[in-house]
Records
---
Amino acid sequence: MNTNIPALRKKMKLSQEELALAVGTTRQTITSIEVGKYTASLPLAYKIAHYFELSIEEVFDFSDVTLPNENLK
Amino acid sequence: MDEFKKKLKIRVSAIALFVIVYAVVNASVHIFGAERSSGLFSGIIDGFGGGMLTAMVLLCVAVSLRYNRAMKNDTELQKLYNAEHDERKLFIKQKCGGDIIVPLSIVIIAAATVAAYFNVTVFITLMCTAFFQLLTCCCLKLYYSRKY
């Protein structure tokens, strides 16, 4: 999953370590999320979005997520 | 965070108790202990027990120093808390079976240490089993750490 975290960090002049400390995770996890290796859980995604004062959709790119078929709803 | 600090204090106290008990038992064995039997396997078994305990004590001291440093610095404490509760680390640990393999291997090593005084073959078999389990767990951890 793609994210806007690197751009947002750059804008705020924030290191991975500082972001990790603020959202209660490790630098390695932030790196993995940024490169798309690891998908953050909903609570962690919420914490990251809240830290940047944005919505989850503004921080994480959900364009590759398949939505359920409307007919099956 | 205060609760985590209390937890660390309890861990440090437990480590200190273990180190003191080890020192007392080790000193007692050297002062009052019976003469050791000779032979290759007896030497291996005696050396293994002593070596394992010494390694555990050294590890405990290193962990204790890390905890003490973290308790004096709020940032370090937060980092330690984050590292212990990091969802990715917990996920990798779960994936590589660390939750069950590590405690199981500790039990097997303890059983091997006891079995060593009765049968050398059982001791070697149990030790090989424990080390193979730990090796598999380490390999899987490395693989999943790179994957996620």
---
Amino acid sequence: MGNYLEDANKKKVIFRNNLLFFSKKYACLIGILIILIIFFVAIPGFANISNLISILRLISVFTILGMGEAIVMIMRGVDLSIGTMAGFCSYLCATFLASGYSIGMSLFITLIIGILIGFFNATIISRLGINALVVTLGTMFILTSIAMIMSKGGYSIYLFGMTSAKINIFLNSGKYLIVGIFPISVIAMILVSIVSYSLMQLTIIGRYFYSIGENVKAAYLSGIKVKPFFGLSFLISGFFAAIAGILLVLGSGVGTPPGGPGYLLEALAIATLSTAIFGEGEINIKGVFVGAIFIGALSNALVLIGIDPGYEFLFKGLIILIGMALGTLFKKESK
Amino acid sequence: MKFRVNKKQIIDYIIRYGVLVIFIIMVLFFALQSPSFVKPSNWMNILKHSVPISLISLGLTFSMLVGGLDMSIGAIYSFSAVICSGLIVAGMPIILAIISTIIVGLFFGLFNGFAAVILKIPAFIATLSTMFIIIGLQSLYTHGERIDINSDTYFSFIGRGYLGRFLAFSVIILLLSICFAYFFTKNIKTGIYIYATGFNLNAAITAGISTNLIKIIAFIICGGFCALAGIIQASNLSGASASSAGISFILNSVVAVFIGASMFRKGNLSIIGTIIGSLFVAVLTNGLAFLEISHLSIQGIKGLILMIVLILNSIGKKKFKYHIGQMPV
């Protein structure tokens, strides 16, 4: 009899533990799914094909920025300039195209400039050991100013008004849809996701990144060259920001000089939300992917509802806060 | 006699006085470019314009002393300007409106402290999300429109009034705030604990200081100063708009605080240093306005100056090889 009771208790405990584990791991994911389904059903025009395409465009930009930000934040750095960099690179790309460079050349130069800005950040931050937060804040404003001076006060470059064969090819490739729904930027998104996932999870570099983020002193003492690796993350975020910038031009055909933080809020929200999504308590690439889908859908839904733009800031700010609070909670439990 | 040059000493001097030299060169340059820059009335004007920057930088100093860069300062500042003007327009007595605005600022500080210390979210993420929440609230409150305060001489006296012919009232408020901050950090136990917590957290915990409480108090003080700055700005412009919100205002204060840090005791924050840094920023802003440079390139120049100051700060510091500029935990 007693044995039976004990067994029942054990089963109960195991069941409860499993439930806890399950809810920790998938609660956020299920919540996000439910919200997405509500969007699909309740918001008129959300499930429209053309709207889904524009959401996919948005998501692909968000994912790429989120990946860059996440890789930096895994090492306990932060890149506040990532949104401005994306805007700056989109403006540069449009400028190069408009001034007659070939498509390949202008994309190449834009990517190189993204990496160079990342290199600038990396040199100052990791070489001199200055707090990443402040340095990237400075970079953000410097980039904004350069773009403003280049554009003589913030005038955008409209590519679709121009009658150049090259620009038409560029814009048409932006309009091209794979299987009728996936815009071409989705390919870039998937490529970037695969590259960053395999970089972080499968290669030794990713292992180094995680160990630097966890305990930099231990990483240094075990022989990892911490400075180059920390700097590398800023190069990666600059590169990704440049890709996102190119996608921005590809999607809209307009090169707008950045007037402020740009997509910084979204990038940070995605990166911090990823701590909560799979219950790992730490920033992870899988979570970034899901988080980007959520944030992209949310941004679009808020626009469709026609809500005051104030709510958008409010919601995203709250999402950062809640996601991070849940993430730290999970982390504490797992330790 | 051989004149011996100590290399370390020279570097030390460069770090301590490099910014001061830049400051003097800058003033001379502006004076040569436009003679009206050096008029006493312009100096009072600069002081008057430096009041909000200085107050916010004072607040930022408190939050940075306990190791958290408060990203929400600009948002709290502009939101309290909006709230204060809104309350006065709604017909609330001025004193009550001011007090409730300051309470709002303190509340946001408490919110920051709660998120950063109790929920253990990294301070900059917590305050950044607060910033976005406040921007949202502000946009909901104003709907993007300007709030105008009409015909209220008592309220406009706070920002624009003069005692006598020369001394602006807002400058007196600033002086009082500086005195408060200085004596608070030097003579009052809580203020000394703030320094202790910032310099060595473990030592402070071992000494029996409840560091969590101290950190929260620092964030609250930061919010209060930002609210005060917002009130003065609302009175200055006799109204407020939502456009000045957000991340752009952080730059001024961050530059001010880091310039201050470079001047005294090699990279340590201090109240007086922060005030000198804010004066630097105010003079720069004013001088560049005299040269008719657009305000968007002013931001870039400030960003560059921030970089230079940071590099100067980092030269003299003793560092381990694994100091790579990560965020504090």
